[in-house]
Specification:
single chain; 330 residues; alpha/beta; Rossmann fold; Alpha-Beta Plaits; 2 domains; 4-stranded antiparallel sheet; globular; ABC_transporter_ATP-binding; nucleotide-binding
Length: 330
């Protein structure tokens, strides 16, 4: 089966700034491909190269077997990261406007229902909440019933219930054969929606695979977090690696103790050990590795290096994506 979306060794520079550095991927028909990575990694530039709004310096991009600029636009749906439709149109009028750009569009009211705004069609865009506005924007990418859908951070600013509405919609579209490439900073979103995930850092895809495969390879071990001020020596009798968390992440308090490579059945032994030593603790939590652990393992080092550069700027690739978003090089 030939890929529906293909990028081969894409390179893109904006002056001295490298946006893409040999990025390659392939997405099959009906597949949802999630693109993750730090701010400024080149995700928006890659999406623009694949949709024909940015011309790469070298390499090749193909969608539906053609160059992005040669595709029948009725077959393509695109939601940019930054999208500001006219404020003084209602949600229904906006979707009707975008529907009018295509030969065989969907009914705007049906699209409103799909994005959970069936009761808000007459509300001016400027009077909608930020999350509702974003859902209208998602709808604008669907009015032509595209075969291939590009979504650049589709659920930014949408509340949890609305986010799940959009997730179900994307799942239904993929089940119906639509090919979807989406970018996101929400690891739960990527883990739920994506058949495969690609991690982009510094303009290159450094890892690709199913969420489960990436977690198995890069996610590390299960862990028990113990919120305690006790010294690490208090855990010396445990047959598990133990470390102090100096910089808390994902809700883990600074200074907590993490016991690695531990299964749920072994937690009682840790508790018994703490109580036998009269060690006080304020909380226990056990977790298996997930896609966020993969992201942190592969991208966090790059992010730290970027912020530690001279002048404290992480601007290299972020500036590149800002230029791409502004359409500096079409």
């Amino acid at each position: 089966m030939s890929a529906v979306v293909e990028a081969t060794d894409l390179e893109k520079r904006y002056g001295e700034t490298v946006a893409l550095s040999g990025a390659s991927l392939a997405v099959d028909a009906g597949e949802v491909f999630g693109l993750i990575g730090p701010n400024g990694a080149g995700k928006t530039t890659l999406v623009r190269a694949l949709t024909g709004t940015t011309e790469p310096d070298s390499g090749a991009a193909r969608v539906l077997g053609e160059a992005p600029t040669a595709i029948d636009r009725d077959r393509l749906g695109v939601l940019p990261q930054a999208f500001s439709p006219p404020d003084r149109l209602s949600a229904r009028e906006l979707l009707a406007y975008y529907a009018g750009l295509y030969d065989d569009p969907r009914d705007p009211d049906a699209v409103l229902a799909d994005v959970g705004l069936a009761d808000d069609g007459d509300t001016w865009y400027e009077d909608l909440s930020g999350g509702q506005q974003r859902r209208v924007c998602v709808g604008s990418a669907l009015v032509n019933d595209p075969d291939v859908l590009f979504l650049d951070e589709p659920t930014t600013g949408i509340d949890p219930a609305g986010r799940r509405t959009v997730w179900r919609l994307i799942e239904d579209l993929a089940a119906g054969g639509t090919t979807v490439l989406l970018t996101t900073h929400d690891m739960a979103e990527a883990e739920r929606l994506a058949d495969r995930v690609g991690l982009l850092t510094d303009g290159s895809l450094v890892a690709q695979g199913t969420p489960d495969a990436l977690v198995a390879e890069h996610g590390g071990s299960s862990r028990l977090t113990v919120e305690t001020a006790a010294d690490l020596e208090a855990f010396d009798d445990l047959e598990h690696p133990v470390e102090r968390v100096e910089r808390g992440r994902r809700g883990t308090p600074d200074g907590a103790v993490v016991v690695r490579e531990i299964e749920p059945a072994e937690i009682a032994a840790v508790v018994d050990s703490l109580e036998a030593r009269d060690i006080e603790y304020t909380g226990l939590s056990w977790a298996e590795p997930d896609l966020e652990d993969v992201y942190l393992a592969l991208a966090d080092r790059t992010e730290l290096e970027r912020t530690d550069r001279v002048g404290g700027s992480d601007g290299g690739d972020e500036s590149a994506d800002d230029l791409a978003q502004a359409g500096e090089t079409a």
